[in-house]
Amino acid sequence: xxxIDFIDAHHHLWDLSKVNYPWLKAKGSKRFFGQPDPIRKxxxxxxxxxxxxxxxxxxxxxxxxxxxxxxxxETQLISSYVGQGAPIAAIIPAVDMRRADLIAQIDSQQAFxxxxxxxxxxxxxxxxxxxxxxxxTSEWLDSWRLLTQRNLTFDLQLTEExxxxxxxxxxxxxxxxxxxxxxxxxxxxxxxxxxxxxAWMTRFSSLPNCHIKLxxxxxxxxxxxxxxxxxYATAAIEIFGDNRCMLGSNFPVDKLHMSFKELLIAxxxxxxxxxxxxxxxxxxxxxxxxxxx
Length: 293
What we know:
Elements lengths: L5 E6 L10 H4 L19 H8 L3 E7 L8 H13 L4 E5 L9 H9 L6 E3 L17 H13 L3 E4 L6 H8 L7 E3 L10 H15 L4 E5 L11 H15 L4 E3 L12 H12 L4 H15 L3
Parallel strand pairs: 1-2, 2-3, 4-5, 5-6, 6-7, 7-8
């Protein structure tokens, strides 16, 4: 299939002169997804277009680690790109779900009409999770309930050791529209790790409004192996159904390990084995429904 209109469910943009991103300024330091020095420079809509060459017809912009006091500035920046013609359909900003002023944070973000949900990263990697606050149900449950009241989605990034407690908490708010970012971070890709991941994805799929992003796969091996991507993507589709799976590039972070052309080849190989309805769900319709576009 060649005539597919892709909506990129997960990508980033940044301008280092307008928003403060500490991790982008830390030259020489390594992160869980690799050595980011090659992307520690502005990544603007023109750069993103140059990477995908017009194949992406619309996209979802996801927050990307600015300092908390610049969360609104980041939303303003992305909104300005939309005003200049960038085909961005939704903005998913950062909020601190644990703070007492969450309502005020959400009020400020929802002043921007393209804000359709929020993200607060619960987990990154086994090596970096100690830098993040421990997940506590008491700090999250009411905040997730607030999102449902405000008709907002939640982008959930977590790691395997966090699955049990996060899953148990989510069962108390089944109405929350939540999407697992980046295959739910499958760091252990041994045969046993794959089976454990499938078992947990089956549990998460029992939540009626839980979706999954087929994105960010190269972060876990610091390489892009097409047949492994297809293996995990196919399993995710079998578990969640094509109507709860969406394709995301995670560019420019994944650009550290592959080109957009390589990613598109994998996407096409995946959807070529699908029916027309399934391929449209994976490429665009699931994203539209989830983010209420």
